[in-house]
Hints:
By secondary structure, the protein is α/β, with parallel strands linked by helices. It folds into two domains: 147 residues, Rossmann fold, CATH 3.40.50.300; 115 residues. The protein has 16 helices and seven strands. Strands 2-5-6-1-7 form a five-stranded parallel beta sheet, with helices on both faces. The protein starts with a helix and ends with a helix. About 2% of the residues have low confidence.
Amino acid sequence: MHPEIARIQSMLDGEGYVADEALATSVYLAIQLRKPLLIEGGAGVGKTEVAKVMARALDADLIRLQCYEGLDATTSLYEWNYQRQLLHIRMLEHSEVPLEAKEREIFSESFLLKRPLLQAITHDRAPVLLIDECDRVDEEWEAFLLEVLSDWQVTIPEIGTVLTSNRTRELGDALRRRCLYLWIDYPTFEKELAIVRRKVPGVNGQLAGQIAAFMQFVRRAKLEKTPGLAETLDWSAALIALHRGHLDREAVEQTLGVLFKHRDDATLMRTQWLDHLLRGVEEVEREPVPWNQETINRVAERVLPK
């Protein structure tokens, strides 16, 4: 592994993010090539967290633009402080200041409300700009963003930009070509286990292994909303809060609402999958340690519905 990639992986790890070589490589290249990093993947797999951890690891400010349907250039770039401008105009009504000077004053930077994109452009030191869920905006705003990013390539090359997408809308080819690309999949058993152990205070080794194995099995079902890493951590915390030291049917049924956010998913798990999932966890525990993804795959072939 390239020593700089290893260093970035170590930095991310030091901030509590379990990063594989592919992610660390993407971050390194985004910094070196001064290109935005477009991260796609299912909901809850840790896309947004990459930018947050990057900012902490690089000791940089994080500027976040949360995208939504209807977002426009004004809201994301800048607005004028109209109330302050009107108040200032009233104060100058009877002054002898020339009209042109009044106009220059009320349209000066002191009356400007900087929104995330302009904050990033004018920041006094290189920030990390997070453009979160950019697939939620329309094609017009995407074209505007492409223009802004293209200008940055020339004028503000030091800004680190991370775009995330859940693929609710397919992004245009022009924006994709402007960015480096990274797909974050659901974690492997080993990665999920490491994250649970690191992120959930008070979890014992047995429960952490059972949780990671259970989640690997769950994601093999056809669900409306496959639970991601965020749900794994929430569920782990819920089990700890209920003083559960191991998984059983009662513990899972009691906490189904933490994992599954659609009624049909919860019903499917409870009525058709739960017995198989728990049996799978039991089978994993009979396997030689340390368990790995191959262990999970082998057990899944034996016990899960086809």
